[in-house]
Amino acid sequence: MRTSQRFFARLREDLAVAKRRDPAARSKGEILLGYSGLHALWVHRLTHTMWQRPGLKLPARLLSQFARFLTGVEIHPAAVIGRRVFIDHGMGVVIGETAVIGNDVLIYHGVTLGGVGPRVGKRHPTVGDGVLLGAGSKLLGPISIGDGCSVGANAVVLHDAPPNSLLVGVPAAARPR
């Protein structure tokens, strides 16, 4: 598949995911024009590609900051984000440099995938496939969140969580679902 074909296939996939995940979405046109979380992800894909090329780190970083200004979503160009990720009501989402997000993840507004200090190396969370990150949740440090977990609204997650856990509280405790 050519690059342009892959690009448009991914665009269609993103629109379909937004339509499926958001019951308020009325049309693909509305999603295409009005969903800031989707716009932030599209810009991230571009900046992530730029970040991996020599001499393009600064332009990638500047473009990501411009996207932050436009969308209210801050995603570092080095972050790794899987397919079919949907950021719903994206305002205030922050995804740090060494964060890794799996496929089919749903992220609500105010979510932070952040660090806990000026470490070198891996310092942001790794989020598995099929995870739900509730509004205002904070996942901090080089932790791993297993596949199928749900993180409750405003939870502060500081430790690894096994697959299919429910994480709630401050600090969050993992409970089986």
Provide a descriptive summary of the structure in words.
- It contains four helices and 15 strands.
- It has 177 residues and is α/β, with parallel strands linked by helices.
- The protein has a six-stranded mixed beta sheet. Strands 1-4-7-10-13 form a five-stranded parallel beta sheet. The protein has a four-stranded parallel beta sheet with strand order 2-5-8-11, with no helix packed on it.
- Helix 3 packs antiparallel against helix 4 (57-71).
- The longest helix has 19 residues, at 3-21.
- It is globular.
- The protein starts with a helix and ends with a strand.
- The model has no long low-confidence stretch (mean pLDDT 94).
- Pathway: Amino-acid biosynthesis; L-cysteine biosynthesis; L-cysteine from L-serine: step 1/2.
